[in-house]
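chain below, 369 aa
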Amino acid sequence: MKKNHLIVLLATVLIVGCGPGEPDSFRITGKLENGAGLTVYLDQLTTNSIKLFGSAIADTEGNFTLEGQITEVGFYKVRLGDNNFVNIVIHPEDNLEITGDANYLYGTYTVKGSEDAIALYELNEYLRLFGLKEDSLRQAATSFGGVQVDPGRRLQLQSAYNSMLQEKLTFLRSFIDNNTSSISALAAVETLDPKTDSEYFIKLDKELYVLYPNSIYVKNLHLRAVQMAKLAIGAEAPQILLANPEGEVVALSSLRGKTVLIDFWASWCKPCRLENPHVVKLYKEYRDRGFEVYGVSLDKNKQAWVNAIQQDGLEWIHVSDLQFWNSTAAKLYDVSSIPQTYLIDADGRIIAKNLRAAELGKKLKEIFG
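prediction:
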């Protein structure tokens, strides 16, 4: 289950700020098919809003020019209407050329003039085509000619969709690998799951923080990457000091010498409760060989927490501050959904994350033989 919070997707708003330095002029020239007489707007995508930066009216042949001065590379939106726009990267001193059909700018535009602008175009185009395929599969899975799709066909479509998701993930990772020095890679990394792809956030931060130290968004990425590094594979698991149901504080560090599964869960979390029987089975199999579970509950009602422990037969260590999503341990471990797990070795270092039943069993077998 996921924590309820506002998620601002980078595909909608990209955040880059201005730093010290003298402003430089940029210029965007363009030609729009079916664009005669239209107003072309340029919006700056800031930390918490979209601000109008400038505008121009296309001539009778659809030609337009947008100019301005900036001190730092940023993300901007070339817009013809609320739902007819493209996001672009602009550097100081850039001279960009944009073409496209005014009736569908996002699906027809091209851009020239800088490597970053072209890279972002390639990413946008891939995501656009992916979205079209995704919509097509979704419609096919719902119905065909008014007749509900049979279960076998639905499984085929689901398999095809899963393959598409994997291909998308491969593309995004490759895009970041090939563009670690490009600000455009921010748009790609923000579509990844930081729980499973933290290495890409960290990798991108190492390059961009040196190149663009004054960018507000790069600074934000840096803060996130620093936190991720604390929870990266090989890092020492942060200390947790919470009380068990009897009120006794049990330190995570007191379990050094054992392989420990830190299990973030709650009595109200159905996926957690469904996962519990599998962990119980593995715990019984490996507890005498040095395996321990350190359950951190995100409950807020003590009795519900205790009842769930008893009902599910969870015989391992349990702690909580009963602060729901405000749990100090959950914040420390960047927990935004549960169940979430970290597996740490006898030295207290993180060796795996978010292992479910089959993966956890495989890892424990690898450790204990």
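The first strand starts at residue 24 and ends at 33. The radius of gyration is 25 Å.
thats it, cya
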